[in-house]
Amino acid sequence: MQDNIYDHYVAIDWSIKNMAIARMTKKSNRISVIDVPSDLGNCVAYLKNLKGTVVLTFEETTVAQWMYTELKDGFVDAFARLIGDSDRHFYNVGLFPQFKAEKSLTPVGYRLAPVFDKLPMMFAPVDDRVVERAFDTPLPSIELIDVWSRALNLARHYWDQAANHKSISTGFRKIAAECLKRLKGAPF
């Protein structure tokens, strides 16, 4: 699949008081962000003004909450636990609206967007300093037992990639290697 099949990649973070709209284009991977008062009319006008194909994802909406509740089979939660993502909440769900007509802004359905915002937040720096933390291999809860093995394999791959990727700092590559070692010894 091509990386640049859309002209615009748009993410909307909506709250009662403000909306943040982030956009990247296929011509530039620079992300531009506007943060303005929440206004549906302005949001629609912004989207209508974009020329070409648009992929859109929403964060922090009731639609995202519904999708998280309805579609959560536990896999994403299991994976998040296995990579130390302590920032798991129902807002981290994106939807791609499906439109019947090319210029329509009225979706006829939605499909789940790829997972995003899955990071090992337990290792997030505090005041620009790495805080040493122990990664204890989590055990599956009863509701995650059916997806645990699949999530564990993906988490092992994730930590392996992080432990060997040259663009990641040496310090964090060591942390990733230790996390991988612990997951390789996991019983499930």
Percent strand equals 15-25%
Which parts are unreliable, with pLDDT below 50 for 5 consecutive residues or more?
Answer: 63-71
Element-by-element helix/strand order: EEEHEHHEEHH
Largest sheet: 4 strands, mixed
Task: Put the structure in a nutshell.
With 188 residues, the chain is of the alpha+beta class.
Notes on the protein architecture:
With 188 residues, the protein is an alpha+beta fold. Helix content is 34%, strand content 22%. The chain has helices at residues 40-49, 62-71, 75-82, 145-164, 170-184; strands at residues 8-14, 18-25, 28-37, 54-59, 95-99, 107-112. The strands form 2 sheets. The chain has a 4-stranded mixed beta sheet with strand order 3-2-1-4, with no helix packed on it. The longest helix is centred in the last third of the chain and has 20 residues, at 145-164. It starts with 7 loop residues before the first strand and ends with a helix.
